[in-house]
Amino acid sequence: MQTLSNKRERLSDELRQLLKSIGTVRSIHEDSYLFHQGMDAKEMYLIKSGLIQISMLSSEGEEMVLRICRTDDIVGELTLFCDDPKYLLNAKIIESGEVFVINIDKLQKELMINHHLSIEMMKWVSNHMRKFQTKLRDLLLNGKKGALYSTLIRLSNSYGVQRNDGILIDMAFTNQELARFCGATREYINRMLGELRKKGILSIDSSGKILIKNLQYLKEKNRCENCPVEICNID
Q: What are the angstrom distances between the C-alpha of 159 and each of 2, 53, 153, 193?
């Protein structure tokens, strides 16, 4: 098996060192939250270890998962350069670890005197806002079916392993977890995955890992614009 090239966006060593130098280390614990949608935003976080799930709530109170963040990812960055900032999303810890806690006011002062790092930080924020927008676009334009197809494509870019018979998403997800990525119910995802299996588009092994046998089918049905992998991923 051949692991697909990991093109997820990475921080420069210089920016990472700046964030670490002004941050303080905090332990994070599974099933707790770093922040909730609508809270005052005074801090952002650089992940040292563990996994953090970024999500939003619909007007009906349904959760939609947008990203899974890991070591060296930043969360809470969408509040930078805003007046009276509020967190736009929720950050739930799904695997215990540690984060660097960075005061936003302190970071903004540092970035004002280092234009190079300021531009890099703005690009990071812009790229993640673009990911957020494309995910919502897939849901709004193509409905929950399109959101599922988009999620499968993004998961293949983040966790895909190339095999002779297709691309294995080398991480198991329950149908309930997939439903949260799509803003759908578990029953709907059960039905849609069943249809895709009947058509030979994918298969699911006993551990819950998905093998995508025909990625092009998902892209064509979703009118995929072939966005860069840096944008089209689940990280």
A: 12, 16, 10, 19
